[in-house]
Amino acid sequence: MLPKEQITQRLARADAILVTVHEAQGSVPREAGAWMAVFGDAVVGTIGGGHTEFDAIAEARRRLAGEHGEPVVRYALGPSLGQCCGGVVHLRFARVGRADIPALAATLDAGRAPVALFGGGHVGRALVTVLGTLPFTVTWIDSRDEIFPPQVPDNVRCEHSDPVQAAVADLAPGARVLIMSFSHAEDRTWSPPA
Questions:
Q1: Is the pLDDT of residue 192 over 60?
Q2: Helix (H) or strand (E) holding 13
């Protein structure tokens, strides 16, 4: 089950504290937008691990128990936390519950980097399985419409494009492009823009 699905299912039963990297400066484990949801009995996602994450989980559980605090807390990642990163992260703590599920789903998707995966064969399928667990929005493209499986991760959108290069114009700005196509002849007819 994907992290977003885990959060949605759990929020239907209990509130959580969503901990988000609000701002990151210098050498830090995760970028702004990285998140984890802290429930009374579980944690879904990660803000990078280590002592900072351990402290953030403890702070989130105190807030779940009713304690209050500033919505954004600054953590300097240095020797005082037993970390050698040297950067600074500002973590945002926000209580979320059942009523927040629709807005939260959109928020969690917003931080995902775009990836275009060309090719629905065995390598493409393996990559979709992996990319489905990572913070990406994947557009999976193939010229063979019947190639896509009926079930794909929630961050994957399948697109039939014949010719396959017609899909290039609609790629998200800054998309990472993976070409795992099945046909050398098809590959020779196009190349993605630099």
A1: no
A2: none
